[in-house]
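Quick log. Single chain, no ligands specified.
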Amino acid sequence: MAFYDAIAPIVYKDSIDMSLAWKQSRYDKGEGDDYINCPLSKDEYYQFISAVADAPKMEFKEFEKTPFFEGCMPIEEIVRRGPETLRFGPMKPVGLTNPHSDKEPYAIVQLRQDNVSGSLYNIVGFQTKMKHGAQKDVFRIIPGLENSEFARLGGLHRNTFINSPKILDPFLRLKSSPNIIFSGQITGVEGYVESAAIGYISGLVAAFDFNNNNLELPPEVSAHGSLLKHITLNANPHTFQPMNINFGLMPDINLDKKDTGKKIKHIKGRDKKRIQAIEALRSFNEWHKTIVLN
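-> predicted structure:
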């Protein structure tokens, strides 16, 4: 349950330049468009490799040193094995066709959808222990990610967490033994505020269960509700990693307007976040009034 791990960064989809990138699964497997692909030329690939090698890293102290899992190697460790190694790993340029160019890419970076609404994309295989300031500069070298915004940067840390989307119900109760309720960081949230928020919800669950009352969970459009739903339902149990709260976990307000039949303006950036924040506060306050009354 505890190990040192590297995690990959997560990018807001709205910040990816789709005039350079495209959606396609390798060899068109699965749904055929499960990934966003960013192509690199030979010069761009070696510029990226050099930047990864030169970037400052978070290093282990002597007492912290532990082997890396081969299936979750930081990209800088892969680069140390040879400059071409990434091209035969997460950046292999095979099974994909770039609709924007006839030139065959030398390498390809893939991003995989990380939440149900499709607002967050994980850079596949890009676990890293580069320092946060360097990561933004290095990853923005990749064509299509020049203006990328990050919901989470890569990191290296000691993990103690359970696979919540697999073993917990929506109320943080262990599916196999519902009398056991998990709380805080061990559920797979990251950050003091997030841990306290999940602790508060688990306390409410315990109190309502004790009194044989039914608890209404916080609305998904709120920070509490979206984080809770992510760790118990929306996250992929096969790739589950600790998550901070971010706007990408909340339902995409643009999806609600698709079936109106009217031409609408796609809302993004600060305007989108402002609307999400207002609705999050309103809905949470309304929900909390009912909880206090009960």
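DSSP finds seven helices and ten strands in the chain.
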